């Protein structure tokens, strides 16, 4: 059984697979964490490309294409990687690898055997895995669940009976939903949900909110039973804060300034064209 995700830094844990194979690991650090995994000879870790921070001399690293990735072409078109990094201990002694979170995020160990062998995650939530874990980036065919962005267009499904490590920005909260219990969460704040949770997308208010303030425009209404992991600082929200801080003072105070100016000129154009048409009539 995997350790709880709210572990204290530098605390060692032991994962025991269904085949009784034991793999020690540590989650190091506070907000920008690293998971250090011990590997026996011939054992391997599958990791997200670019996430390897350090490794012992007996570890060999290789980038491979994962054929079960159902949305590989869509990922490539959206500028995302379609490969995975395999870290294999080819030596005769125990080795170790350090896998780092890509942002200011916490690393959550998820024992898939406890969650019925499947978890649905936000895109790019997967960090690395041990043993039997498959990662599929799939497209949600239900029109009501399609959001006009890459983060809503792709859904990451993690399945198998192994141990997966996922990341959540800021602080992470775990909610255990009972049968029929309802929870509404901002779409960008969802890290992962168990497959038993029913998720419905809800648009809050008319489309004009997109122009005059689109915060919390889309929420996910989730109905139990199941478990939901919620993050306090999604990466896109963090990047927006940084972008506002480095822009000019006018744009920092009103980041939608240029968009509002464009709408003003468009409306002025419509008024002028309409007046000319009415004059000709």
Percentage of residues in DSSP E strands: 35-45%
Task: Note the overall shape.
Answer: elongated
Largest sheet: 6 strands, antiparallel
Order of helices and strands: EEEEEEHEEEEEEHEEEEEEHEEHHH
Radius of gyration: 23 Å
Uncertain runs with pLDDT below 50, 5 residues or more? 1-10, 141-146
Please work out how many helical segments DSSP would assign.
6
Residues in helices, as a percent range: 10-25%
- Number-wise, the strands total 20
What does this structure look like?
The structure is a single chain. The protein has 281 residues and is an alpha+beta fold. It contains six helices and 20 strands. It has helices spanning 72-77, 150-153, 208-211, 235-246, 249-253, 257-280, and strands at residues 11-16, 22-28, 34-39, 44-47, 52-55, 59-65, 83-89, 95-100, 105-111, 118-121, 126-130, 133-139, 154-160, 163-169, 172-177, 182-186, 190-194, 198-203, 218-223, 226-231. The strands form four sheets. A six-stranded antiparallel beta sheet has the order 6-7-4-11-14-9, with no helix packed on it. A six-stranded antiparallel beta sheet has the order 12-13-10-17-20-15. Strands 1-2-3-8-5 form a five-stranded antiparallel beta sheet, with no helix packed on it. The longest helix is centred in the last third of the chain and has 24 residues, at 257-280.
């Amino acid at each position: 059984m995997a350790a709880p995700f709210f572990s204290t830094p530098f605390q060692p844990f032991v994962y025991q697979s269904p085949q009784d194979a034991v793999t020690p690991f540590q989650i190091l650090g506070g907000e920008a964490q690293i998971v250090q995994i011990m590997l026996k000879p011939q054992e391997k870790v599958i990791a997200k490309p670019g996430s390897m921070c350090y490794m012992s001399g007996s570890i060999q690293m290789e980038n491979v294409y994962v054929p079960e990735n159902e949305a590989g072409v869509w990922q490539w078109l959206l500028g995302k990687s379609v490969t995975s990094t395999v870290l294999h201990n080819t030596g005769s002694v125990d080795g170790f690898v350090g896998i780092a979170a890509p942002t200011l995020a916490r690393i959550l160990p998820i024992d898939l055997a406890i969650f019925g062998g499947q978890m649905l995650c936000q895109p790019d939530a997967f960090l690395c895995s041990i043993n039997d874990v498959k990662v599929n980036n799939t497209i949600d065919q239900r029109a009501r669940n399609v959001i006009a962005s890459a983060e809503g267009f792709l859904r990451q499904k993690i399945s198998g009976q192994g141990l997966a490590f996922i990341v959540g920005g800021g602080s992470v909260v775990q909610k255990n939903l009972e049968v029929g219990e309802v929870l509404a969460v901002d779409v960008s704040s969802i890290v992962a949900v168990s497959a038993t949770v029913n998720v419905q997308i809800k648009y809050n208010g008319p489309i004009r909110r997109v122009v005059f303030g689109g915060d919390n425009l889309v929420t996910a209404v989730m109905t139990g039973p199941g478990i939901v992991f919620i993050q306090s600082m999604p990466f896109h929200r963090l990047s927006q804060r940084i972008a506002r801080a480095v822009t000019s003072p006018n744009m920092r105070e009103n980041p939608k300034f240029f968009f509002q100016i464009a709408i003003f000129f468009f409306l002025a154009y419509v008024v002028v064209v309409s007046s000319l048409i009415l004059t000709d009539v």
